[in-house]
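Here is one such tokenized protein:
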Amino acid sequence: MDYLYETFIKTKKQREWFDRIDTLASGFAKRADTYDQKSEFPFENVEELKKAGYLSLTVPTEFGGAGLSLYEFVLLQERIATGDAATALCLGWHLGCFLELAEERTWDEETFKLLCEKVVNDQVLVNRAATEPATGSPTRGGMPQTTATRKNDEWIINGRKTFTSMAPALDYAIVSAQIGDTGKKGNFMISMKSEGVRIEETWDTVAMRGTRSDDLIMKDVVVQNSALVEQDRGKSELPKAWLLHIPACYIGVAVAARNEAVQFAKTYKPNSLPGPIGEVPEVQRKVGEMELELLHAREVLYSVAHRWVDEPHSRMQMGPELMAVKHIVTNAAARVVDLAMRIVGARSLAMSSPLQRHYRDVRAGLHNPPMDDMVISTLAKRALE
């Protein structure tokens, strides 16, 4: 096992899960370029993860899931991302939903139980659909333009959601909407098979192409009253620790780029040198810089994830630290990929090189929430207060 992971595997359970995922991720790496070039959703990867029980990783044990913690979630997500980043990011949204709901228990218990059992027994895929063209990222706090109108004991949902990752494979979407004319916001659980639900293929990005984060369109979608699973959550909600799956994904991309560059440095022998380029001091310096970036970023990521698990009494105060992790790790990941490409040189720009895919994918992390400006502002305000 790579020494990069040995440091962070602490228990027998973690090792068992890691070994299981390690084998799958190696297979994902062989298919990653195909999914990327065709901009196709990685159905085969997800099917293998379903068979491994991965979709119920963060479902509570009381409902039949594995009940793994934030720390273990992050560890496994990073390894998947070294194989295929799009697969990791997609599953991160699904698993993150259940980790958040398991920790906060804001839903009606029976509703949550039924959804968990669908994941365990039927392997359904779930994602939140919150981003919209007019509001941008939901972390900015804008009111959704999607509307939910009450009619007797039913709700009529109308709206458009962007960045709906896993759109072709989703079974359920947790959709944010304005509730009538109350000025309040709610979340509705909607089956993707409902009449009036459709996917518009708008995903034409150069990064994370396999996520198929297309638009979700809802036109007069009728749902039962019970579909309203959350409304007007207050400021007391826990910080969104589950979003650490984002930096975990992008540091996984960086590790994959680092591995590619190190292998190249160890084996490429131009006839102008007596040995491989890895013996050149400048190349060694760049390799050392990659190792330093990874050490810093991963220590921050795993130490904060461990603190979340180990110190539940501190969670309400951990918002700034969690935000800082995303900033530190995603920016470090981008630097690692850049260094890897400098080591490999112009060959890294060839479409046959995985490094060009890593370069495109890692850039997406800078635009996932929370944004850098929000992180810096939050840290500044805390210091000044």
